[in-house]
Write a structure and sequence with these properties.
The protein is of the alpha/beta class. It has helices spanning about 45-50, 90-105, 105-120, 135-145, 165-180, 200-215, 225-235, 240-245, 265-270, 280-285, 295-300, 320-335, 340-345, 350-355, 390-395, 425-435; strands spanning about 5-15, 25-35, 35-40, 50-65, 65-70, 125-130, 150-155, 185-190, 215-220, 255, 275-280, 300-305, 375, 400-405, 410-415, 415-420. The radius of gyration is 21 Å and the shape is globular.
């Protein structure tokens, strides 16, 4: 039988395909052609079945789907460490927003987004959801890097360097959606900042466009106790109920944080088939509270994982985030079996894909899906002895061991070296911004 010619054949020690669940394949190969996964095969069979333009021999590596960072503010990497150890509202209102008013521009967003993407690629993330300003600059940076990205156009009631008010934010966001309609790696979402920063009329307009254009809604929600208290005082209801009344709870709605929720809130999310994006490290650092991940999963709610921005985390390593998520879920539920290693990996892959509406294309290594995948070295000192590869991915320093990354079959990281962005240039630009901002 004549061998089939393909673009890429990867021989590796382990594969975690995510689908089927809880499986670890050993001494197998992954075949890729035209940016799509053809399938996984025993190594001897793959050698007979295929001849490839590129063959990777990753004998000490594990291959899995690329991680999906379902919430962040990439450009805020330039504010990493700028205002640490503060509660959310004073951190935001007294430090971050004033700094942004002074410095945020298309140039700031380009440089900050590039810095963030380099960090994410190097630690295993292939797809991210962003929420910031100067959206065209984000889109161009994402295009140039080769990463997959959901760009949420931020909507606020007050002006910034980017827009004059809610109508202006929405107008610019809809123009961006028109420009990127049908793009294979970029998706546009409506991103009202939070219930406390967006008025009812603006929220209703967003709900209308989300329904008419089938656009995702990405929103911070129930992040702090004061947010809930102020909503009850101002609107007579909790933030989630207000969103429901305004028509924003949809199957494509992504609710970020959700640390201050009760049984009624969980049932409301369940009834409307919304998604929750959990950002444990940012929530811990800002002392915002604890998202009850175990209860949400038990209720059948899709829970994805995000880092939030580097200004409140302070890193974008999603492997570190999923370790924190697994440990925190156990502590909150008082149950060490809650959110086991395979569940945590699903949160960072397939659950993220489902939240972003991309689960038909990414999130698992299934035949026909896009070849968005990563390879991790499994031979470091901290990973020995290796009894269970899934547990070592979750509970050790796996992000620092990522060696390869591909999006739609295109290599973004090879042997630990970035292929689409310049590391030294990014460090130089970040230093220039630090000098400017700290003046």
């Amino acid at each position: 039988m004549q061998a089939t010619k393909i673009d890429l054949l990867i021989h590796c020690r382990w594969i975690i395909p995510i689908v089927p669940e809880n499986q670890i394949l050993e001494n197998c190969s992954l075949a890729v052609d035209g940016g799509k996964i053809i399938g996984t095969y025993p190594r001897a069979e793959a050698d007979k079945k295929f001849t490839a333009d590129k063959v990777e021999h990753l004998n000490d590596h594990l291959v899995m789907p690329g991680l999906i960072n379902a919430h962040g503010h990439a450009a805020m990497s330039l504010l990493r460490g700028y205002a640490d150890d503060l509660a959310l509202r004073p951190w935001l209102e007294d430090h971050i927003w004033p700094a942004e008013n002074r410095h945020v521009s298309a140039e700031f967003v380009t440089d900050g987004t590039n810095l963030a993407m380099a960090e994410m690629i190097a630690s295993g993330t292939t797809c991210f959801a962003d929420m910031y300003f100067f959206d065209e600059a984000i889109a161009e940076a994402a295009r140039n890097s080769g990463m997959r990205c959901q760009i949420g156009f931020t909507v606020l009631d007050f002006p910034t360097a980017y827009a004059k008010g809610a109508d202006d934010y929405i107008h610019k966001g809809l123009q961006l959606n028109d420009r990127y309609s049908g793009h294979s790696l970029i998706k546009i979402a409506c991103a009202p900042h939070a219930p406390y920063s967006v008025s009812d009329p603006a929220m209703q307009r967003i709900a209308t466009y989300a329904n008419e254009l089938d656009m995702p809604i990405h929103i911070h929600c129930h992040e702090t106790g004061s947010e809930v208290t102020e909503s009850i005082e101002q609107y007579g209801c909790r933030p989630l109920e207000r969103l429901k009344n305004l028509g924003l709870l949809l199957p494509q709605t992504q609710l970020v944080h959700m640390t201050q929720i009760n049984g009624d809130d969980i049932r409301m999310v369940q009834d409307h088939n919304c998604h929750v994006v959990h950002c444990p490290e940012s929530n811990l650092k800002l002392a915002s509270g604890f998202c009850p991940v175990g209860e949400l999963l038990e209720a059948g709610i899709n829970v994805a994982l995000g880092t939030d921005g580097a200004a409140s985390n302070n890193d974008l390593d999603l492997f570190a985030e999923l370790k924190t998520a697994a440990l925190l879920a156990k502590a909150v539920a008082k149950d060490p079996a809650v959110l086991d290693a395979h569940q945590a990996l699903r949160m960072a892959t397939l659950h993220g894909a489902k939240a972003l509406g991309w689960d038909h294309e990414i999130g698992s290594l299934e035949a026909g899906k896009s070849a968005d995948m990563i390879a991790i070295r499994m031979d470091s000192l901290t990973q020995q002895p290796l009894y269970n590869p899934a547990c070592q991915l979750v509970y050790t320093n796996a992000g620092s061991q990522v060696s390869h990354s591909w999006v739609a079959g295109k290599a973004l990281l090879t042997e630990g070296q970035l292929t689409t962005v310049n590391r030294q240039s990014l460090i130089h630009r970040a230093t220039e911004w630090r000098n400017k901002i700290s003046c």
